[in-house]
UniProtKB/TrEMBL annotation:
Family: Belongs to the RutC family.
Species assigned in the record: Dimargaris verticillata
GO cellular component, one term: cytosol
InterPro entries registered for this protein in UniProt: RidA, RidA_CS, RutC-like_sf, YjgF/YER057c/UK114
GO molecular function, one term: deaminase activity
PROSITE patterns listed in its UniProt record: UPF0076
Domain of life: Eukaryota
Protein name: Uncharacterized protein
Length: 131
């Protein structure tokens, strides 16, 4: 595969990458997002300290990145959820289910020792891109 087949995605509606990577890459009809945190793009700050507010913002951010890639939450194939504390799983799940509005992509969820900027949740996803 040539590097010309890879299309980086960037939107100011989601927080800019914290390092040398793209918000997402589109290739072969799919979009692969980088992990998103519960940070508001306008302020660069977390929307709140709790898993509910951060989960909601993570999914809003993913929605913006997906939209820029001509996709959306309804086209997500798989998500990966990283939690600082697995005790937050039920609370995260409630917001996740609400935001996906009946769509149930494949998913993995793992507890990690630490997340960037001491976030409590981070998510990445793979989705189909509109033809």
């Amino acid at each position: 595969m040539s590097s010309q087949a890879l299309k980086p995605v960037h939107t100011a509606q989601a927080p800019k990458a914290l390092g040398p990577y793209s918000q997402a890459i589109v290739v072969n009809g799919q979009v692969y997002t980088s992990g998103q945190l519960g940070i508001a793009a306008a302020t660069g700050e977390f929307v709140g300290p709790d898993v509910e507010s951060q989960t909601r913002q993570v999914l809003v951010n993913l929605g913006h990145v997906l939209k820029e890639a001509h996709s959306g939450l309804d086209k997500v194939i798989k998500t990966t959820v990283f939690l600082k504390d697995m005790n937050d799983f039920v609370a995260m799940n409630k917001i996740y289910e609400e935001m996906f509005a009946g769509h149930r992509p494949a998913r993995s969820a793992v507890e990690v020792a630490r997340l960037p900027k001491d976030a409590v949740v981070e998510m990445e996803c793979i989705a189909l891109v509109d033809a």
